[in-house]
């Protein structure tokens, strides 16, 4: 390394697929997990409810749940709520009513139109519940996932959908949430716990995206806005993003002449879902 110059670790043009990317909203997902581009149909009757299904009561906003990572990606959650003073990984931030009609036709709860409506309704709850500014939310591990009743429960009259706030700790688990999650990103140092970090340099083979509360050596510290009409992985935008991240790293270096940085594009899945920002990475202090 030559003194007086920064060291670019690499512009990441093809980042790994994100876990909750297309079914949730927020910061970078977990590298190495399969994307969820749409919710699957509700489980079969034998897998979800008894033959004599009844309509469950609508969930309560503010109720807490101890979900696994796998459960958070399913279209239905039949688990019971837990007290928010107990360990939990999700909190219900919105409960809405399903619309059963489209162009005069009756919709099933697992129809593409119904799923798309819920997918459009839930992500806005991230800002209203978690707080923080837009950059903080994009840098965080916080996501919003959603659930609907089963087909049998919907037939029995259940007409609600549920939006839950979660934080993705790593590729195999969710992060525990505090008893009071509203305004989670408003506190000083919130991203030290719920921010996006890496176990190695972003272009390293052993890299894994993790919450900053876990062991890490790199950290996502800023976002780079990308134009709505841009071409994916456009060379000029890559150069601009790299320049931006270099400037961020230089400012954070506090006068040191040697520093490292990396600019990361969103995945193609995120891009196609409408995400128009990338991330700046620097070594953790």
TrEMBL record:
InterPro entries: Septum_form (IPR026004)
Keywords carried by this UniProt record: Signal
Chain ranges of the Septum formation-related domain: 62-279
Protein name: Septum formation
Signal peptide: 1-31
Domain of life the protein comes from: Bacteria
Pfam families on file: Septum_form
